[in-house]
Design brief:
- This protein has one domain.
- By secondary structure, the chain is mostly helical.
- The relative contact order is 0.23.
- It contains 6 helices and no strands.
């Protein structure tokens, strides 16, 4: 998979779940204390997402966090492959974070209407986790 595409797609996962994409990337490519801290943050986010009063992912704070973690994933992918495309991958990841946040919100609203809140959240969790694993494995 081309590196910029992988950075964009991993950014899209960050748009769905802020910490899932970086946690998967670091656990698979950069095993360190940071990887385990990101994994704890990702698990906490999955649990908090089930609460009814979580702010929308497209409100300013959560959206900025998704943009930053998308960029972080782009940098991490570029760094792990030894390529010098760090800035381009950071931009691709950040753009993916925006795309994933807005597309994910639209899909989540449709899923909530069709199957309910908790099942929709769990389906989105599964897409984020499995998507991140596949992207990192093939990047």
């Amino acid at each position: 998979m081309p590196l910029l595409l992988a950075a964009f797609l991993l950014g899209c996962v960050a748009g769905l779940r802020t910490f899932t994409a970086p946690a998967v990337l670091w656990l698979m490519r950069h095993t360190s204390l940071l990887a385990y801290l990101l994994a704890v943050a990702a698990l906490a986010e999955l649990l908090v997402d089930l609460l009814p009063k979580v702010p929308a992912r497209t409100s300013s704070g959560p959206l900025v966090a998704r943009i930053l973690t998308g960029a972080f994933c782009g940098v991490g992918l570029a760094w792990s492959t030894g390529r010098a495309m760090i800035a381009a991958c950071a931009v691709a990841g950040a753009l993916g974070g925006i795309a994933g946040a807005y597309a994910g919100l639209a899909l989540r609203m449709r899923l909530i209407a069709a199957i309910g809140g908790v099942p929709a959240a769990l389906a989105e969790d599964a897409v984020a986790i499995l998507g991140a694993i596949a992207i990192v494995a093939y990047a």
